[in-house]
Design a protein that fits this description.
The protein has 14 helices and 23 strands. With 479 residues, it is an alpha/beta fold. α9 (258-266) runs parallel beside α10 and α13 (354-367) packs parallel to α14 (394-417). The model has no long low-confidence stretch (mean pLDDT 96). Bound molecules: S-adenosyl-L-homocysteine (SAH), iron/sulfur cluster and FE3-S4 cluster.
Length: 479
């Protein structure tokens, strides 16, 4: 079953999306269909991306596809012939923002009656979103999900031809599609998908429903992509997966894990390797040992803990304990002494007592995280936790988030302070967002640094002496 049919529409089903029945994953090789050649000639596109790095990488694929059809990118939305919103469903406020944006861009159709508006990514994988769009947002012309973005050209073709709304959302376990052209956003750092989907089913999370089952790309394809990027002058790759530590678990006839992949990439010439996201249950000793080889493997790990209370971790279906998490942190610091560790934390999970929350604060205090993304629990329809009794009032949730953030911000500052007076290596990204006279980039420990410099060094790794640490960034001078 790949979704529900109605008229020409294909609707999603969260219930079908939960299924994990197939062992094998279909491999698809993308080629450009002849009838699509040139359909974007003299036309312009604009993609707005929300959500995680997975979506950023998907948007680069859509940009690549559109360019092969003849489209060119624009920044001014009034000039666009197609606007694509690549959406995120992780929390309700993320969705509300996107609905607001849909309302706003509706008026652009007045300037350009031929403008196509497309909604894709994780939100359309939820049936209630598709129904709401059909009912309340007639300005949307094309709706598709995460499984079929490589068919974008077909949907545009259909939308031009039929003048009818195109709704094509598959709820299925998912394939691996190779050969989709990418137009990368940067020329010095690149996302590299190593796997898709998620099988963890943390009780609060919509991702296993929106992205399908965990499926790993062939490691030859990944290594080749990194080699090609290196040859093109790229300095950094970030390996992407919802749970990179589960890489290879779905291989049927070979035994090749994330640690093997990291080990093989460690031997390549790519100057910097990062990866995200890691899961405490699956981060194994071998991976830590390979990380300890350092070289091009950056000394930073994002390891979401979600809560410091065993009671809550169990209800979240995280499958590790507070003790196991702390043990992992000790091991990481033993093997990679100056590693920077960041995390994700949810407050106000159903049933979270004062003691549970205090346990989270206590864990944050113990671990000395150098950064954390913190969230108030948001019930996602279709997930188990959305049915748990939510017995915490909103004021308490806000107070907990505030108290947690206060502690987390101290961690950010302390993490930055340890580099004051030191010389660090920075990959120069470009001009600083806040100050156009300054350059900015990230250190090996993933710290943002601002410094004065000439644009000719953009894309290079340079030595910067850190003069002062602030909560959110470092200020330095080129050595
Ligand atoms: N696969 C990654 C990222 C998942 S989404 C991981 O496992 O860490 C990023 C973060 O969003 C999660 O780590 C979690 O902290 C948060 N999150 C996910 N679902 C949420 C929900 N329903 N409410 C609030 N925060 C949520
Ligand atoms: Fe969501 Fe958990 Fe999977 Fe992360 S590991 S994407 S939090 S289900
Ligand atoms: Fe959001 Fe989908 Fe990523 S829900 S966080 S865009 S996987």
């Amino acid at each position: 079953m790949i979704g529900k049919k109605h008229k020409n529409y294909l609707f999603p089903s969260l219930q079908d999306a939960r299924k994990r029945l197939k062992k094998e994953t279909e491999q698809i090789r993308y080629t450009l269909p002849v009838h699509l050649v040139g359909i974007g000639n003299n036309k312009k596109y604009l993609i707005k991306t929300y959500g995680c790095q997975g979506n950023l990488a998907d948007s680069e694929k859509m940009a690549g596809l559109l360019e092969t059809l003849g489209y060119r990118g624009v920044i001014d939305e009034k000039e666009a012939d197609i606007i694509i919103l690549n959406t995120c469903a992780i929390r309700e406020n993320a969705e509300n923002r996107i609905f607001g944006e849909l309302g706003r861009i509706k008026t652009l159709k007045k300037y350009n009656p031929n403008l196509l508006i497309a909604l894709c990514g994780c939100m359309p994988q939820e049936e209630n979103v598709v129904f709401k769009v059909l009912e309340k947002y007639p300005q949307v012309d094309i709706v598709f999900g995460t499984h079929n973005l490589y068919l974008l050209g077909e949907y545009i073709y259909e939308a031009y031809l039929s003048k009818e709304k195109v709704v094509q959302v598959y709820s299925k376990e998912g394939d691996i599609v190779e050969g989709v052209p990418m137009k990368r956003a940067f020329s010095q750092k690149a996302w590299v998908n190593i796997m898709y989907g998620c099988n963890e089913f943390c009780s609060y999370c919509i991702v296993p429903y929106t992205r399908g089952k965990e499926r790993s790309r062939n490691y030859h394809d990944i290594i080749q992509e990194v080699l090609d990027l290196t040859r093109s002058g790229y300095k950094e790759v970030t390996l992407l997966g919802q749970n990179v530590n589960a890489y290879g678990k779905d291989f049927i006839d070979i035994n090749y894990t994330f640690a093997d992949l990291l080990f093989d990439l460690n031997k390549t010439e790519i100057p910097r390797i990062r990866f995200t996201t890691s899961h405490p249950r699956d981060l194994d000793n071998r991976t830590i040992e390979v990380m300890a080889l350092q070289g091009n493997i950056m000394p930073h790990l994002h390891l979401p803990v979600q809560s410091g209370s065993n009671n809550i971790l169990k209800k979240m279906n995280r499958k590790y304990t507070r003790e196991k998490y702390l043990e992992l942190i000790n091991k990481l610091r033993h093997y990679i002494p100056d590693i920077s560790i960041t995390t994700d934390i949810i407050v106000g999970f159903p049933g979270e007592s004062d003691e549970d929350f205090t346990a989270t604060l206590d864990l944050v205090d113990q671990v000395d995280f150098e950064g954390a993304y913190t969230f108030i629990f948001s019930p996602r329809s279709g997930t188990p936790a959305s049915k748990y009794e939510d017995n915490i009032d909103y004021t308490t949730k806000k107070q907990r988030l505030y108290a947690l953030n206060k502690l987390v911000n101290e961690g950010y500052l302390n993490g930055n302070k340890r580099f004051e007076g030191k010389t660090v290596k920075v990959l120069v990204d470009g001009f600083s967002n806040k100050n156009n006279n300054m350059l900015s980039g990230y250190t090996e420990h993933n710290k943002l640094v601002n410094f004065a410099g000439n644009e000719t060094i953009i894309g290079q790794i340079i030595d910067v002496k850190i003069e002062k640490a602030y909560t959110w960034h470092l200020r330095g001078i080129i050595e």
